[in-house]
Structure formats: C-alpha cells, structure tokens
Amino acid sequence: MPITVSATTYNNYVDGRWAPSASGETFENRNPANTDDLIGLFQKSTRKDVEAAIDAASRAYQHWRLVPAPKRAELLFRAAQILVERKEQLARDMTREMGKVLSETRGDVQEAIDMTFYMAGEGRRMFGQTVPSELRNKFAMSVRQPLGVCSIVTPWNFPMAIPSWKIMPALVCGNTVVFKPASQTPLSALNFVKVLEDAGIPKGVVNFVTGDGRQVGNPLSTHEAVRVISFTGSTDVGRIVNEAAAPTFKKVHLEMGGKNVIMIMDDANLELAVDGCLWGGFGTTGQRCTAASRVVVHEKVYKAFVEQFVARAKALVVGDGLKEETEMGPSNSESQLQTVMDYVRIGKGEGATLACGGNRLDKGTLAKGFFHEPTIFTAVDPRMRIAREEIFGPVVSVIPCRSLEEAITIGNDVEYGLSASVYTQDINQAFTAMRDLYTGIFYVNAPTIGAEVHLPFGGTKNTGNGHREAGSAALDVFSEWKSIYIDFSGKLQRAQIDVEHV
Ligand code: UN1
User: Fold this and answer.
1) How far apart are CA 77 and CA 14, in angstroms?
2) Pocket test for ligand 1, best of 158, 235, 390, 419 (most atoms within 8 A of CB)
3) What crossing angle do the helices spanning 404-412 and 427-436 adopt, rounded to 10°?
4) 3-class SS of residue 270
5) Which residue's CA is minimally distant from atom 8 of ligand 1?
6) How far is the CA of 137 from the centre of ligand 1 (A)?
7) Would the CB of 289 count as within 6 Å of ligand 1?
8) Catalytic residue among 97, 104, 122, 255
9) Is 134 labeled as catalytic in the residue annotation?
10) 46-256+464-482 architecture in CATH?
11) pLDDT exceeds 70 at position 87
12) Does residue 4 carry a pLDDT above 80?
C-alpha cells in the first residue's frame, strides 16, 4: 500500500466558505505517473452538501443577475489576469494530477485564459436584436436573460479549460453555478475556483463540491432549483444525465464521445500528415474527445505513410509529464489504462495488424505509473470495434481507402460526429470533404485537435445534443431569449388583426 503521510486535505467551497463535507470522508488524489505521490485528500461530498450549494447559488442569483454585465465582466477580466500570473504553477499542478506533459497543461491553462478574456468581452456585447414592428408606434427587440442555477460537471482530460468553457459564459450571462469536477483532477478545479474567489466573485455565485457521480452528480441533474446542466464526459453518462434531468425540464448541454478521423489523400504532403497524425493521435495520450483515433489513407500513399507514422510513433518519449523531454505522459488512471489494454486485445482478436506498441510500460521509473506504448493498428477494417468505439488512449487505427468518396463514407460511418480532417493539396477535394463530413468541427491540412475558444465547439450525432460551447454559441446555452414589445401608440393595436394597407 502506498504511504499516506501528511497529505493536504482540501475543502469544498460553498456560499463563500471553504469547508469540509458533512460526510467527514475524503478521497485520495494521486499522480498517474507515480502513484506513490499523493497529491491530496478531497471531500467525499453527499447529497446534503450539494443541496447546500444549490441553495447558496439560488440566493446569490437574486443579486448577481442584477449586476450589470460589464461589471460582472470586470471580475472575469481580473480572473484572466490572475490565471496569467499563476499559469506555470497551475500547469505543474495539473500535470501532476492529470498526467499530460507540461507544454500541454500550459496550453490547457492558456485555453482557460483565452476563454475568460473572451467571455469578459461578451459583458459589453451579448447582442440581441432590434427589429421593426409591423405596427406603428411599436418597438420590438430581444434580449438575453440568465436562467438561474447552473450545474457544471466536467471531465479530467482538460481540468481547467473545460470548466472555463462552461463557468465563464454562465457567469457573464448572470447565472450562478455549482461545479463538480472529475474526481481524478480536483486540484486543478480547486485552483480555478480559488482564482475566481481571488478575483472577487461574490459569495454563493460559484460553489465547488467534489465527490462521486451518485452522491454529487445525481442531485445536480435532478434538483428542482437547477435550471441548466452542462456536462462533458462519456456518451453513456451523458444519457444518464439527460434522462435524470428530463422530468424537471432543465436545459441540458452535453459534450460526449468522439471517434475522429483524419483522411489522407494521395496528393497530401505526407510529412505534414504524419506530424498531424502523431499530434492528433498521441497528444494528451489520446485522451481528447477530439483525438484522431482513425486515419483513413489513400491506397497509393498507404505504405509510405504507415512506414513514416510507425517510425515516428516508436520514437516518442513516454514518461512523467513533468520532465521536459517527455512527449507522451501516462493514461490518467488504472481503469483508463485497462481500457487501452482491452482494446489492444480486441484489435488483435479482430485481425488488425499491430504495427507498433501494444504493451504496458512498467519498467524502471515507469513502474509506478499508468504508461502504455503508442500503439498503431494497420489494415484495419472500418467495421472493427477498434475503428468504431472511443478508446480514449494512445491507440490509432489506420484504414486504407481507394478514393475521397470512400474516405468520407468511412469517416461518417460511426456513431459520433465531433471532429474530422483532410490532408490534400486539391481545393476541390478539400471543399467536398468539408461539406460532406457530418461533424461539428472540420480541419484542412491540420489534425482533428486544436479548436480555438472563439468558434463553436461540439459535435453531431451521439457526440452532443445540438448545443455548442465556446464562442458566442456558449451564450445560447447559458441564456434564454426574451422578446420585448413596447407599444407607444396609446391605443390597443392588435398584431395580425389590425393590418395596415399601404
Ligand atoms: C477535448 O477534446 O476534450 O481542440 C477538448 C482541442 C482542444 C480542446 C479539446 N482545444 O483539442
């Protein structure tokens, strides 16, 4: 058993106070690169804690909704500045609990900074419409109004970026939040809440409760007073959230799985495509919803591509993400690593060719972590499970094709629709693929990862439920339209009845 001496205990943050859960119990947060490293103990919260947080958020909503949006935004600007000041420490804490390499955790914090500045800017925009009325002396416009308490449930793969995508638009629109982070990365979430506290967000506006899905997640999806639930995670859990929230008609925003494809045509710049597949497939150890876990390659360049891709994947340096030379960190947890190993077994059983990798790495300094070799299957049939199911690990399936049309058919033939990309020098092929891939995000001559905060983020089919986060689209999740008519004629004017003939 690992030793658990002198670990820091971290609290929940409810109604402006840092306090332990009513349960008196905690759970451990350990480093996935070295499980001897105990990062801290976090509150194992109960339904009661969540209810207290929702009550605090409901009370705080009554004054926060009336704070002018540009004033709410000033606090967000301040939060963004604090994130900038603390970026390096936040990134180090994040690598220690999440596993991804430092350059990527710096990127994760940067994405939170970008989103916070962007949403702070919305404080002076949040545009509605003014339109002419069909009647004389009548004025017509629409404005965005907040909804109330928002539940924010986030995953471990982007421990600060994804909370920022949800919390910042929620706040700028005038909502209050109860935030439950993934239990694998509670420190980054806590660091983020601390930034908001230090920026001066009033008590009760942001509440933070750690714990599991049954005790904490469930009341966040069912409680009467919650008006919005924004969830990022697996499609299976997303379905549970959606069903739990249905009886109370909450607005449900879901960001779920992906099985993203890179399509490489015979005229592609192969070196560029190999760079993209390495970054898309093995960046974040494949643990992005946008990860490029399928590569469909034109048969004319298939052999040359596979040679280069496999050689480069074999050369990737796997290790502790805190070391500057590391290119790929561990899986985030034992169960995540187990899933990777299961899919390697499934792929072999299905008859795909294991071109490289396929093994857990547990020698020497890697012995105490959840490390796995970068793994490539080739000659994959699109009907195989490894080509259809989300793995969320460093496993890429390479599928040969004969034409762009076939690549598009394969690309679309999965249950998910988050991100896709094409490598080609031919503008006609690029535009055809751009039009015909049914996804929420598309790239030309770039991998499937790399979304920027000012455009909508999200996917089609089983990836989402029609909403988008990021960009001004996020405002649609966290506000509702109110259409307003002001009649200054001094008499009753009946729309559609008092028709004026010109
Ligand atoms: C995710 O995949 O879970 O586009 C989020 C990207 C990042 C965000 C990814 N900016 O890959």
Assistant:
1) 23
2) 158
3) 20
4) helix
5) 451
6) 49
7) yes
8) 255
9) no
10) 3-Layer(aba) Sandwich (3.40)
11) yes
12) no
Q: What is the pLDDT of residues 114-129, one digit of tens each?
A: 999 999 999 999 999 9
Residue from 108, 449, 468 whose mutation best tests the ligand 1 pocket (most atoms within 8 A of CB)? 449
Report the alpha-carbon distance of residue 442 to residue 436 in Å, rounded.
10
Q: Among 1-15, 313-327, 376-390, name the one with the lowest average pLDDT.
A: 1-15
Q: Where are the domains of the chain?
A: 46-256+464-482, 261-444
Whether 261-444 and 46-256+464-482 are alike in CATH topology: the answer is no
The answer to whether the CB of 290 is under 6 A from ligand 1 is yes
Q: Return the CATH architecture of domain 261-444.
A: 3-Layer(aba) Sandwich (3.40)
Atom of ligand 1 nearest to the CA of 452: 10
Exactly one of 150, 173, 277, 289 is catalytic; name it: 289
* pLDDT above 90: residue 502: no
Instruction: Taking residues 390-414, report their average pLDDT.
Output: 98
CA distance 153 to 231: 5
Q: Quick check: 85 and 199 in contact, CB under 8 A?
A: no
pLDDT surpassing 60 at residue 2 = no
Tokens for 231? 């969830």
pLDDT at 5: 58
* Residue 88 annotated in active site: no
> Crossing angle for the helix pair 299-314 and 270-282, nearest 10 degrees?
50
What pTM, to 2 d.p., does this model score?
0.97
